[in-house]
Amino acid sequence: MNDTSNRANQEAMLALCQITKEFPGVVALDRVDLTIRRNELVGLVGENGAGKSVLMKIMIGLIQPDGGTIKLHGEPITLKNPSDAIKNGIGMVFQDGSLVRNLSVVENLFLCHETAFRRFGLLSVRSMRAAARELLTQMKLHIDVDLPVAEISPAERQMVEIARLLWLSELYEHDNPVLILDEPTTVLADKERETLFSILQDIKKQASIVLISHRLQEIVENCNRIVILKDGKNVTEMATSEARLLKVEQLMVGHSFSADRFHEDEQRTRGEKEILRVENLSKAGFFEPLSFTVGEGEIVGLIGLVGSGKEEVCKCLAGLEKADTGSIALDGRKLPRGSPSSTVRAGLGHIPIDRRSEGLALMMNVAENVNLLVLNRLKAGGFLSPARERKNAHHWVAECQIKTPSIATLCSNLSGGNQQKTVISKWLSSRVRLLILDHPTRGVDVGAKDEIYKLMRKLAKEGIGMLIMCDTIEEDIGLADRILVMKDSRLVKEIDSSPNKKPTPQDIIGLIV
Ligand SMILES: Nc1ncnc2c1ncn2[C@@H]1O[C@H](COP(=O)(O)OP(=O)(O)OP(=O)(O)O)[C@@H](O)[C@H]1O
Ligand SMILES: [Mg+2]
């Protein structure tokens, strides 16, 4: 008997059957089925907006479905809320995390369940600490349990959340809990990602795990089974032993991709004109004096490890921080140091890494976000003209192919990739000269990634200069015309990355570590 049929015979722990959910203007889920068996790691994949998160929120009782049933060990159940789900052995780690940042690790681990540590009516802090240490050691995590959660790394925070769920399932005596991880690896560095997967392989011996990720490679490498959703419907599922990356991508988006991922054939030579000139810019403790330029229509990749200083360079360019020395000039005009508003007015746009908290006004709608920087242009007779507002918003929604029920939809209700496109369109609408793109495709599905790449090539053709920092070195190399390498607070090398002269990732890794 092969591996798949073996597993098919195994007991279904949890089954979602024919789940339907509608929101105003969108059918988020249309009769979706999902079965979770004992001790398996299931990869849940699909484009931005496919319905993955909504399905998982239904699985933990955070959202109630319009139709369908949830069965636990074959018996239908209703999950009224997340704590109801936890009592039934189902827990979720959200992408944006749910720990209380100013409480310590041990306080977070047992929050609301401290009664488990009462002895003769008194809370035994000592036994709480001991339990916390034991839990974390099991997960090969060696952190001070008294540290506030705000002071540990994102990777450690995630581990603490997982540990909390495992402990809770033990508390409620579930021998095989279901653990849901929604895009846990998006914010992790390569090393941390490896650690997470090795821990998940261990946890799998006593739990079932559902993992959502846009890093399809890691899904194919680590999961037992892959379930693909598209437009709120089941597409197919397969054992990973039968899965090929290209096939999964194709099933997800419904079309294949050209071998030329980064559209290098559309790469063009830098225009005569210089857009950005940075001279002797420095900030003590972050980066030593450095100089470079970005030309018209040129894409420059800035590569370096976390802590190499590249993040601070970008913040200084965007005016969010003030450099100690040096100058920044856009189209030959000097920018005042440390002034975000005059930097924007001069035509320098910045798409931050954390679009949810910095790039986008989530409680405003699509049109309001797109128009945010150009309100002056949309006035008629001193007042905002609703007709002009609508026209501008419609234009950019079409141009950037933002998938939204309408321009009046709140941005918080858009999926990740479409939020990202909304941020980009806001800057394009404001007619920037130079755009800093900090991890532009983070959390974005393969199809939307491809659209963002095409959009960047188009911007380059229009003469806009770009400074990019990407999720992977391959992405930096593929997109960039030229690469700047930073190491230990210094700009150490400049590398040509024109179509036939692309460096290999190894060339670059050798320089940054
Ligand atoms: N609270 C809500 N109100 C209205 N629409 C919503 C709400 N939550 C989700 N949606 C819509 O439901 C659909 C599915 O969203 P969901 O968040 O599940 O996508 P996803 O597959 O997780 O995408 P991503 O990969 O971008 O995270 C999307 O069209 C989204 O805009
Ligand atoms: Mg999601």
- Which topology of the largest domain does CATH recognise? Rossmann fold
- Can you list the ligands bound to this structure? adenosine-5'-triphosphate, magnesium ion
Mean pLDDT: 90
The 3D shape can be described as: globular
Major sheet details: 6 strands, mixed
Secondary-structure arrangement, i.e. CATH architecture of the largest domain: 3-Layer(aba) Sandwich
Q: In whole angstroms, how far apart are the ends?
A: 47 Å
Q: Quaternary status of these chains?
A: single chain
Structural class: alpha/beta
* CATH level-1 class of the largest domain: Alpha Beta
Low-confidence stretches: 1-9
Strand content: 25-35%
Task: Please estimate the helix content.
Answer: 25-40%
Number of helices: 18
Strand order of the largest sheet: 6-9-10-3-11-12
Number of domains: 3
CATH superfamily of the largest domain: P-loop containing nucleotide triphosphate hydrolases
SSE topology sketch:
Layout: H1 3-8, E1 12-23, E2 26-37, E3 41-46, H2 52-59, E4 67-72, E5 75-77, H3 82-87, E6 90-93, H4 105-109, E7 118-119, E8 122-123, H5 125-138, H6 154-171, E9 178-182, H7 190-203, E10 208-212, H8 216-222, E11 225-230, E12 233-239, H9 245-253, E13 274-283, E14 287-295, E15 299-303, H10 310-317, E16 325-330, E17 333-334, H11 340-346, E18 348-351, H12 355-359, H13 366-371, E19 379-380, E20 383-384, H14 386-399, H15 416-429, E21 434-438, H16 446-461, E22 465-469, H17 473-479, E23 482-487, E24 490-496, H18 505-512
Parallel strand pairs: 3-10, 3-11, 6-9, 9-10, 15-22, 15-23, 18-21, 21-22
Antiparallel strand pairs: 1-2, 1-4, 4-5, 7-8, 11-12, 13-14, 13-16, 16-17, 19-20, 23-24
Helix pairs in contact: 14-15
